[in-house]
Design brief:
mainly alpha
């Protein structure tokens, strides 16, 4: 799905020919270096936070626990993710031709801080996205399992791969669409080499609204939903099946 992400980035930075085939996979190596450990850190810590909070606050509504655990999990992983995101998006936007050149250029221009350009924009996008994604998935799954249990004699109903995919698709599509404005802000902050967008979430949002109106916040929404929804489907199928296997082994 990486080429769709590249198209989304091109649309968000205002490149005319966003669908050109050349360069669709540029930056993919850096993305993998960032995304794989980030996923392990975020979702691994999410499960730890979730179980700990559920045990400590049994009377609190689960939705609030899922949301808080999602926030803590995403903050845990964001410190690792940001440098790879900055490099990936600057390559996708055509600022640098390769990962090697991106590392050299960013380091020469700004040092370590350059790899954390747009960090607040990343958090502003990722925390609401993760809260929406995980809370929607958990609530959809719980509602579905209750309905499934009511139709069966057993009380140990579990999601099948197809059912997990459907719950994941709903969670991924909703969370991707509603956080697209924040994703546009994050993209512009990470690719803004001339400080045209002010260096903050509020200033960047104000500039987009002034120049493009509300529709500017939703640039790239279709490719964003198009690559996140199936990715989330695959993730939650694996996630649920792994959880069920571990629970059985315990």
């Amino acid at each position: 799905m990486y080429p769709v992400d590249t198209i989304k980035t091109r649309m968000q930075v205002g490149q005319g020919d966003a669908f050109r085939l050349n360069g669709l996979y540029r930056g993919v190596a850096g993305s993998l270096v960032g995304q794989v450990p980030y996923g392990v850190l975020t979702f691994g810590s999410y499960e730890i936070y979730k179980q700990s909070l559920l045990n400590r606050f049994p009377t609190v509504k689960p939705a609030f626990v899922y949301a808080l655990a999602a926030i803590l999990g995403d903050v845990t992983g964001s410190g690792w993710l940001c440098p790879s995101e900055v490099m990936k998006q600057q390559i996708q936007a055509g600022i640098y031709p390769s990962m090697r050149e991106a590392i050299k250029g960013i380091w020469k221009k700004s040092g370590v801080s350059g790899f954390y350009q747009g960090f607040t924009g990343g958090l502003a996008r990722d925390v609401p996205f993760r809260v929406a994604q995980l809370t929607t998935f958990e609530m959809t799954k719980n509602l579905y399992l209750r309905a499934k249990q009511s139709r069966s004699d057993g009380d140990n109903a579990a999601l099948s791969a197809f059912e997990a995919a459907m719950c994941g698709a709903a969670a991924g599509s909703l969370s991707a669409a509603i956080t697209n404005p924040l994703d546009r802000i994050k993209t512009l902050m990470m690719t803004d080499t001339t400080n045209a967008y002010g260096g903050s979430v509020a200033k960047c949002a104000s500039r987009i609204l002034k120049d493009e109106g509300v529709k500017g916040l939703f640039a790239g929404v279709l490719p964003r939903v198009g690559y996140i929804a199936p990715s989330v489907c695959i993730f939650f199928v694996t996630y649920e099946l792994a959880q069920q296997k571990f629970n059985k082994s315990d």
